[in-house]
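User: Thanks for the earlier help. One more: protein-glutamate methylesterase. Can you show the sequence and predicted structure together?

Assistant: Of course, both are below.
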Amino acid sequence: METPQLPSPLQGREFAAVVIGASAGGVNALLEILPALPKAYPYPIVTVLHVMKGRQNQLAEVFQQRLAMRVLEAADKDELRPGTLYFAPAGYHLSVEDGGVLSLSQEEPVHFARPAIDITMASAADVYGPSLVGILLTGANQDGAAGLAAIGAAGGLTVVQDPVEAQVAVMPNEAIRLRQPDLVLNLQEIRSLLLKLEKKQ
């Protein structure tokens, strides 16, 4: 089977990091797209999931059993490294600072969420600009829409899960309403996109 041509938003661009946000239905969505990635994936992937406090360690463990990539719960002052999937810990906002260093805080929730997708995406956009890929998946509130818009405003590549396919369409629909993303894709297409990004290295 021939590999499809790269979508035009990827052509002539270089990337350095991926940030993914999801809420309701997000675990299943991530398990559809991430296990296909190789151990030596060339970018760090920072993921923010809305989950109950105390479940984050279980998530990292569950995903490590299914992924070739290294999976970690993000810790304060961690440096982002290629081939590693970082989960924002429950109860903490996760920011990306200059040099790709992670920072945790316990400021007020955003859209009733801590960690908030908006905070992680907006801070990563400030650091990586056009070399950042932002992906927003299924979810039941508005968190992530403004963050993805910030990635787009900084020149990064923005991807939203097709609301028709999403387990809960509120989050994808809000992102599309706020700022038209570069790509609206189903989970299979998002998985293919992440693999195509690897070939750009």
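User: Great, one quick takeaway?

Assistant: The beta strands are 17-22, 45-49, 70-73, 84-87, 93-97, 101-105, 132-136, 157-161, 183-185.
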